[in-house]
Specification:
The longest helix has 20 residues. The protein is about 55% helix and about 0% strand. It folds into two domains: about 200 residues, no CATH class; about 60 residues, no CATH class. Helix 4 packs antiparallel against helix 5, helix 5 crosses helix 9 and helix 11 packs across helix 14. The protein is globular and about 75 Å long. Strands 1-2 form a two-stranded antiparallel sheet. A hairpin with a 2-residue loop joins strand 1 and strand 2. By secondary structure, the chain is mostly helical.
């Protein structure tokens, strides 16, 4: 009996340490108690638990200085081009106008291949525009076009658009005898065709979401030199027709021109007309865009080509100044303008 009792006591003593260990000792916690700093062992356990997690890479955010420097060349070139265009516009200089048109073809067309397109109208109306900070020139270009149109009218169409500039330069080269003068009645009705093109292009886009359709209503893709055989044939036909009917696409077919024409009804600084303009037809006959109709200049058709404004300033041709001279005095002397002094 004594031996049996001794054995039971020995077994109890051996099992005592295992029974008194806390349960959580077998399941170590990696979370410290409230208010306690994690121990070294807990930190090690936590690192082991996260050993298969990849560390998040933090990219350094670009500063505005870096963003602007990366686009500095384009910004400088665009600023120089728009400055040239505005100086020529305000000085009413034929020479600067021709330089601007040539620069537009080379810079906006061949170098940048960037024109205001119906695709940009899609983006404006749908709110689908590129990221601002990586497309500074694009937003400056679009902003300049919208602001200049509200201030002075379709200045963009008259000297910024590379395709319009090219057709105007063609008009300077093509002999006048080849041109066909569109009858005024037909000219006024045909001017509404571009609004139909604009409406049709917008309806098609919002119905299908097809951006590539723009290539069949605009010839601007020509500056990228990428097109199908059908597109090149269509472009060649359009340019040949432009030889005979000046500014054909810009006057009658361009959907962007139609959009800017609608916007130009808000023009702030319009061309000043003399009282003699009610009877004089000199400017109306001179206008290549069909924008002058009697005493009225139709803002939606005027591209601010300067032709009529140069005539207003010519005291040797404009009846306003000739009449004042006959009356023996001039109430207001405009700057004397001589076409030969500014011609190339």
């Amino acid at each position: 009996m004594r031996r049996a009792a001794a054995r039971l006591a020995l077994l109890a003593l051996l099992s005592l340490p295992l029974a008194t260990l806390p349960l959580r000792a077998a399941q170590p916690s990696t979370q410290p108690a409230t208010g306690e700093a994690p121990s070294a062992r807990q930190k090690g356990d936590r690192a082991t638990a996260d050993q298969w997690n990849f560390a998040e890479e933090e990219e350094a955010a670009e500063s505005w200085g870096q963003i602007v420097r990366s686009q500095a060349v384009d910004l400088v070139l665009f600023a120089a081009f728009t400055t040239l265009a505005l100086v020529g516009f305000f000085q009413k200089s034929v020479r600067l106008q021709l330089v601007t048109l040539a620069s537009s073809v080379v810079y906006m067309g061949l170098y940048k291949s960037q024109l205001i397109s119906i695709v940009n109208v899609y983006g404006l109306l749908s709110g689908n525009l590129p990221i601002f900070k990586y497309n500074l020139v694009f937003y400056l270009f679009g902003g300049f076009t919208l602001v200049s149109t509200v201030l002075w009218g379709r200045l963009y169409c008259g000297r910024i658009c590379a395709f319009g500039a090219m057709t105007q330069l063609m008009d300077r080269i093509v002999p006048a005898r080849l041109r066909f003068e569109v009858p005024k009645a037909f000219d006024r009705r045909a001017a509404y065709v571009k609004y139909a093109f604009l409406g049709g292009a917008l309806l098609y886009f919002f119905a299908t979401g097809d951006l590539l359709f723009y290539r069949y209503v605009e010839p601007f893709w020509m500056f990228t030199r990428q097109g199908t055989v059908v597109m090149w044939i269509g472009l060649a036909t359009l340019l040949v027709a432009t030889v005979f009917i000046r500014n054909l696409y810009c006057r009658f077919l361009c959907p962007v021109g139609a959009f800017l024409a609608l916007l130009s009804n808000l023009t702030v600084f319009r061309i000043t007309r003399w009282s003699e303009c009610k009877t004089c037809k000199i400017c109306e006959k001179t206008c290549e865009w069909g924008a002058i109709r009697g005493p009225t200049i139709v803002a939606s058709e005027c591209v601010r080509c300067d032709d009529c404004e140069r005539l207003y300033l010519d005291q040797q041709k404009c009846p306003h100044w000739l009449i004042l001279k006959k009356k023996g005095g001039v109430a207001y002397m405009a700057p004397v303008y001589s076409p030969t002094a500014h011609s190339p």
